[in-house]
Fold this sequence. Notes:
Elements: H1 5-29, H2 38-42, E1 45-48, H3 67-76, H4 84-91, E2 97-101, E3 114-121, E4 124-131, H5 136-152, E5 155-160, H6 172-191, E6 196-198, H7 220-243, E7 246-249, H8 259-269, E8 274-276, H9 288-296, E9 303-306, H10 317-326, E10 332-335, H11 344-358
Parallel strand pairs: 1-2, 1-10, 2-5, 5-6, 6-7, 7-8, 9-10
Antiparallel strand pairs: 3-4
Amino acid sequence: xxxxxxxxxxxxxxxxxxxxxxxxxxxxxxxxxxxxxxxxxxxxxxxxxxxxxxxxxxxxxxxxxxxxxxxxxxxxxxxxxxxxxxxxxxxxxxxxxxxxxxxxxxxxxxxxxxxxxxxxxxxxxxxxxxxxxxxxxxxxxxxxxxxxxxxxxxxxxxxxxxxxxxxxxxxxxxxxxxxxxxxxxxxxxxxxxxxxxxxxxxxxxxxxxxxxxxxxxxxxxxxxxxxxxxxxxxxxxxxxxxxxxxxxxxxxxxxxxxxxxxxxxxxxxxxxxxxxxxxxxxxxxxxxxxxxxxxxxxxxxxxxxxxxxxxxxxxxxxxxxxxxxxxxxxxxxxxxxxxxxxxxxxxxxxxxxxxxxxx
Length: 359
């Protein structure tokens, strides 16, 4: 090597060393986070009323229950929503958060806290009575629930709400009525300390499909529903910000069955009090099971439904949890067992074990 080549070689070595060091920086910065302690994991989990809904006393409790429900109640007892904080403490040791389903709210012996509702579902229209959090008796009952929450130390994190309907309906009167119901429930959710509340997008149970044209297929019909959903969720988010409760969209039929529609609504609303709250299993086909969840993960900050459902051949709960945590999710996993080889309590305990193992 000539004397003249030595400085050039030394410079090249210095460049390679510097480049290698720079390339290593992102790797150092992306080192795996420290494992969570059991206490930290438990803080990321919520019980859920849905898997044990048949344990609850309801308006129809006087009617004969199915043999399965009778056996379930004999095994675990019959409860009301006011019992659920203590039920959570006893059934899921260390869990301090709850996800409460709206249809189980209220004292079913007091007609004054219920409003008459009509719902047009897949099986036709049906009329029923639904808890109204704005009634004087409803507000008093919510105060009782808040007192139970305070005395047990088991907090309400999320309200899975089915009460606000027609949120994207093309009938403007029905849409406005749905928003009004949502606002009443946002007030009620704030009263019990909830951080988030689900509102269904409404509209057709199966979203409109594209139609053939002379050039490329178009779906002008779905645009009408999306526009209304965007307007509605923007208004609800603005109201939620005032009372301190986020409005969430779950993949829960209709527009929200397609994660792209949820993304569109959230991007267009663009409000910190409107986000996704995906469910592990509420999908229309098996390829959505993980890809759909992955699509919604970046839009999710507060709550998800960790679900097992034998609708699918296999549900890898741990994989679902890791999809969420890899996307940076630091919120709460609610144990929403749907159906399968266990009863509601056993299924929720299975999810408890799987989520704890994956965190």
